[in-house]
């Protein structure tokens, strides 16, 4: 069983890099069943944390984007490319 750092102690970049490595390992098909399940579980934890952090950042940005009158001025953006996302 691999020793992992607590997900919340990782920076966003560290968590996303670790998730990418897990995905690549799972896609390779070289792991034993137990290791695959452990990696998948860790990947889900990382993904949940990353999504929560993105939602928090989006909320902060929407607060910062206020017009002169104090009204929210949320500028629409394009959705992120999730073609390589985990399907949970």
TrEMBL record:
A Gene Ontology molecular function term of the record: exodeoxyribonuclease VII activity
What Pfam families does this protein's entry cite? Exonuc_VII_S
Q: Which reactions does this protein catalyse? A: Exonucleolytic cleavage in either 5'- to 3'- or 3'- to 5'-direction to yield nucleoside 5'-phosphates
- Determine the domain of life of the protein's source: Bacteria
Q: Which UniProt keywords apply?
A: Cytoplasm, Exonuclease, Hydrolase, Nuclease
Where is this protein localized, as stated in its record? Cytoplasm
Q: Sorted alphabetically, which InterPro entries does this protein's record hold?
A: Exonuc_VII_S, Exonuc_VII_ssu_sf
Q: Name one GO biological process term.
A: DNA catabolic process
Q: Name the Enzyme Commission number(s) assigned to this protein.
A: 3.1.11.6
Major enzyme class: hydrolase
UniProt keyword Cell division, yes or no: no
SUPFAM superfamilies for this protein: XseB-like
Q: Which GO terms describe its cellular component?
A: cytosol; exodeoxyribonuclease VII complex
Query: In UniProt terms, what function does this protein have?
Result: Bidirectionally degrades single-stranded DNA into large acid-insoluble oligonucleotides, which are then degraded further into small acid-soluble oligonucleotides.
Q: Whom does it interact with, and what assembly results?
A: Heterooligomer composed of large and small subunits.
Write out the similarity annotation. Answer: Belongs to the XseB family.
Q: What is this protein called?
A: Exodeoxyribonuclease 7 small subunit
Organism whose genome encodes this protein: Collinsella intestinalis
């Amino acid at each position: 069983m691999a020793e992992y750092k607590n997900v919340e102690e990782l920076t966003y970049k560290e968590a996303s890099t670790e998730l990418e490595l897990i995905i690549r390992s799972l896609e390779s098909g070289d792991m034993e069943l137990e290791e695959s399940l452990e990696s998948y579980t860790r990947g889900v934890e990382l993904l949940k944390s990353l999504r929560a952090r993105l939602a928090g950042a989006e909320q902060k940005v929407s607060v910062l984007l206020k017009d002169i009158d104090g009204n929210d001025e949320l500028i629409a953006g394009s959705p992120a490319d999730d073609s390589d996302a985990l399907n949970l």
